[in-house]
Write a structure and sequence with these properties.
This protein is mainly β. It contains two helices and ten strands.
Length: 160
Amino acid sequence: MTDPTRRATRVHARGHWPAEQAAGTVTLAFDDRFRRRMAMTDDAGGAFLLDLPRAVALDDGDGLELGDGSFLRVVAAPEELMEVRVPGPVEAFARVAWHLGNRHLPVQIVGDTIRLRRDHVIEDMLRGLGAEVRDVTAPFMPEGGAYGGHSHGGGHGHSH
């Protein structure tokens, strides 16, 4: 039986919960940050149940509220990614972005680069379009899209 105080039933967006009072952290890769109900373990090894009314895309810095009123801070885990830079005119960058979007690939915009998961077929396509591609290890926080999720560029779209 799960301790009812170790049940996370609410998500609070980054900046909208008392982060300085976090009771701990839970580090999750991108694929593990979109869940509704799942047994999890925090970074200190403590078990808890994520038990939300609906699946929510968790963002780095969000707070999971536990049954006792304490919070766990969500940390985006570093992942193996490709970072794409497109030299030349903005049209070249737009062309690369269009090809990635046409394949419905999750991407993260970081300054003048695009980050996405490593894939040798996509890497070959990008290089063929004139892009520079390098491997990086970093948290992956892709754009939420126009029809759901949330943008990681500033705003936060899930409701609380």
